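// run 5 | inverse folding | seed 20
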């Protein structure tokens, strides 16, 4: 895990200035996939993997960005910042600067160091962690404070408007607003949320298929477009359905025959996933873990078969977990087409579960998966030394 003191020294040694240091976590989503951009419900938790951002002011009008992960430094002129992404890690901090400048903030020169241990391309929101940590760092430098939900929206805009990935609000929201030992049942329409306590004897076991996930790839956008096409048909009939959040399974029975077959399936996933997500929070509140597990299993089936958002390896990772002692529920988490599964596991079985699942997966695919036993961590904040 990250060592903030070493990170602080690294910034100090490189830039000869004391940094203000911020941390923003990655996330795992317990249930509610591809529902955020349909203004529906999601239930993510922040995790221990995180990005650190250290910032100090400069007097030469330069913005200097350093990534410890890439061991690379890039220098820009604060008065003439890039306005377009270039498929480089600097897109994220540059996007933060661009969005903040667009909001009317004057951005002075600064030095920014970045380091993170959220596994890249694994569906655990390394980009959101990077955006949120940078956003906190830059806003603190310029003396602006945004409430958590507003900060999350600005970070989503970095992704949508600068980086060019058409994601929803979930990842940035949970990174900015996570609560230790809780998942958040987030209503992506008005950003209100309810804390869903994760019992202390339940571990979040995250199993990485090692198949790279990317929301910038075409599949995420295609699925989104297919589900939105179904929504438009329903809205054309009865109005008041700007998003699939407003649609029902009965709508699909009535007008599904007018939809392209794939659109109908995508919409069925999104509408039923919303229902499952709300139900899962209720079950968690009641301590009914059997029901949580059942909903997760149904969610995975829907994600894999109706949304076609899974892959052979993720389906296998879920299947291989089923009869292991301690499993409560397992499903593919995040944007899909690779990445990680989330397994809710009785804590006393978690270590053995992780080992056995890894062994089974390796035996099947010849790939050693990274399996992490995590707990729900708090959201982004400044680190004091
Ligand atoms: C990715 C996106 F960034 C989120 O907004 C969300 O749509 C998720 O995929 C799927 O639930 O993480």
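// decoded
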């Amino acid at each position: 895990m990250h060592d903030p003191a070493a990170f602080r020294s690294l910034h100090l040694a490189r830039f000869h200035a004391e940094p203000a240091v911020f941390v923003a976590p990655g996330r795992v989503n317990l249930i509610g996939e591809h529902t955020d951009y349909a203004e529906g419900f999601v239930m993510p938790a922040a995790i221990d993997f995180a990005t650190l951002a250290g910032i100090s002011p400069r007097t030469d009008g330069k913005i200097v960005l350093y990534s410890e992960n890439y061991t690379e430094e890039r220098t820009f002129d604060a008065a003439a910042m890039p306005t377009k992404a270039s498929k480089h890690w600097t897109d994220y901090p540059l996007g933060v600067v661009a969005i903040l400048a667009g909001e009317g903030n004057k951005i002075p020169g600064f030095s920014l160091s970045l380091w993170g241990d959220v596994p890249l391309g694994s569906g655990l929101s390394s980009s959101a962690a990077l955006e949120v940590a940078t956003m906190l760092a830059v806003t603190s430098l310029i003396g602006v404070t945004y409430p958590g939900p507003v900060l999350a929206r600005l970070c989503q805009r970095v992704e949508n408007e600068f980086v060019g990935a058409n994601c929803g609000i979930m990842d940035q929201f949970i990174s900015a607003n996570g609560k230790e030992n809780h998942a958040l049942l987030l209503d992506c329409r008005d950003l209100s949320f309810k804390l869903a306590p994760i019992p202390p004897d339940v571990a979040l076991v995250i199993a990485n298929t090692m198949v790279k996930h990317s929301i910038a790839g075409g599949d995420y956008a295609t699925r989104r477009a297919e589900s939105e096409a179904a929504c438009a048909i329903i809205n054309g009939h009865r109005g008041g359905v700007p998003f699939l959040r407003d649609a029902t399974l009965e709508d699909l029975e009535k007008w599904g025959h007018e939809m392209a077959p794939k659109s109908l399936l995508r919409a069925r996933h999104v509408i039923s996933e919303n229902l499952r997500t709300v139900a899962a929070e209720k079950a968690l509140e009641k301590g009914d873990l059997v029901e949580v597990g059942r909903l997760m299993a149904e969610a995975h089936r829907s994600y894999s078969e109706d949304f076609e958002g899974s892959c052979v390896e993720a389906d296998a990772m879920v299947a291989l977990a089923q009869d292991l002692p301690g499993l409560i529920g397992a499903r593919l988490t995040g944007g899909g087409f690779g990445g990680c599964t989330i397994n809710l596991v009785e804590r006393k079985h978690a270590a053995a579960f992780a080992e056995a699942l890894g062994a089974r997966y390796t035996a099947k695919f010849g790939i050693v998966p990274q399996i992490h036993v995590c707990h729900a961590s708090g959201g982004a904040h400044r680190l004091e030394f």
